[in-house]
Amino acid sequence: MARLSDTNAPDRGIVVRDLRMHFGETLVQRDLSFHVARASIFVIMGVSGCGKSTLLRHMIDLQQSAQGDISFDGQRLWTRDAAERAALQRRIGVLFQSTALWSSMTVGDNVALPMQLHTRLGAAEIRDQVAFKLALVGLAGQESRMPSELSGGMKKRAGIARAIALDPDYLFLDEPSAGLDPMTSQRLDTLIMRLRDALSLSVVAVTHELPSIFTIADDSIYLDDEQRTAIAHGDPRELAERAEHARVRAFLNREPLAERDDEEPIHGN
Ligand SMILES: Nc1ncnc2c1ncn2[C@@H]1O[C@H](COP(=O)(O)OP(=O)(O)OP(=O)(O)O)[C@@H](O)[C@H]1O
């Protein structure tokens, strides 16, 4: 497990420090500090409404907090320098839960769009890159298909191809397996791990699919909806057996929680 105190991982990867997130007066999560190591998969876990998506939105710069900070390879995300911030945003790829492919464009055009908007590559180079990215996600030769012709799993793959169009260092996935059958979900897990290894991607995934969590996570954090902070951090396979807090063990073992467990004192990780 990578922690802030690791001497061999000073500022590589993503560092979240003392982050506090609000919606108006309502506190979502507080005191979040963790490190996402380079070329690893980090899973954000917790029950519905605990703040997983809100944390992801902060990490991809769609929301900002006045308290705490987030840095990528030592570079602060919330810098005042607009050019620096834009450059950093380009190193971040995102697959949203809805996938959000442009329905009126072919798969190939969907993947090409970020390159047309943000690079100076010519048409032939973009065509090659699109073919390469689609092959990477297992959709070789599917350029001319329309999104409506794709299965749920293929849509996710096309969404990932678009998310990696600009060769990001970081890939954020919001509920990647949502709506997929177990077999398709398993194949997607394999793809995510392959991309981590082949592209040295740092992947941050929000998911509450247990099989997926146990398969892909190198490290994880559990956001508690009652304490409004992280009450567990580490390899989810180990947390399932040895987490200090009953709610974390119950979540990871899909067990009902006895009423009294909700009242146990929780001291953070
Ligand atoms: N735009 C918003 N305005 C006000 N409150 C919000 C807004 N979006 C989310 N919230 C609240 O913030 C809290 C965290 O929501 P969030 O969507 O981050 O949780 P989550 O863990 O991702 O949930 P789920 O697993 O159901 O997607 C919830 O209590 C939610 O009601």
TrEMBL record:
SMART domains: AAA. Gene3D superfamilies: P-loop containing nucleotide triphosphate hydrolases (3.40.50.300). GO terms for molecular function: ATP binding; ATP hydrolysis activity. Pfam families: ABC_tran. SUPFAM superfamilies: P-loop containing nucleoside triphosphate hydrolases. PROSITE patterns: ABC_TRANSPORTER_1, ABC_TRANSPORTER_2. Residues 14-252 form the ABC transporter domain. It comes from the Bacteria. Keywords: ATP-binding, Nucleotide-binding, Transport. This is Polyamine ABC transporter ATP-binding protein. It comes from Salinisphaera orenii MK-B5. The lineage of its organism: Bacteria, Pseudomonadati, Pseudomonadota, Gammaproteobacteria, Salinisphaerales.
